[in-house]
Design goal:
This protein is mostly helical. The chain has a domain of 51 residues. It has three helices and no strands. The protein is rod-shaped. The protein starts with a helix and ends in a 7-residue tail after the last helix. 17% of the residues are buried.
Length: 78
């Protein structure tokens, strides 16, 4: 793998995690390619996109749970 290709791969992986829908869309497009390296990169992008969505959902639930406990703690049983 060339240095330019490795840098692009790292940038693509970071974008896939930070912008999950981009990662999933780009990954699906890359998995349709013939080259095995692009297929591998596409699978990683899809996995990072799904991981980003799952972590965002877990974080949102945790944030809401902590916010509800702090703001409405008197309503929740101990």
């Amino acid at each position: 793998m060339a240095t330019e290709s490795k840098g692009r791969a790292v940038l693509t992986y970071a974008a896939s995690f930070l912008f999950p829908f981009f990662g999933i869309a780009y990954g699906l497009l890359e998995t349709c390619k013939v080259e095995p390296e692009k297929k591998r990169r596409g699978k990683i992008c899809v996995a990072l996109g799904i991981t980003g969505i799952v972590l965002a959902c877990v974080g949102a639930v945790a944030w809401l749970a902590l916010g509800l406990k702090a703001g409405f703690g008197f309503l929740l049983p101990e």
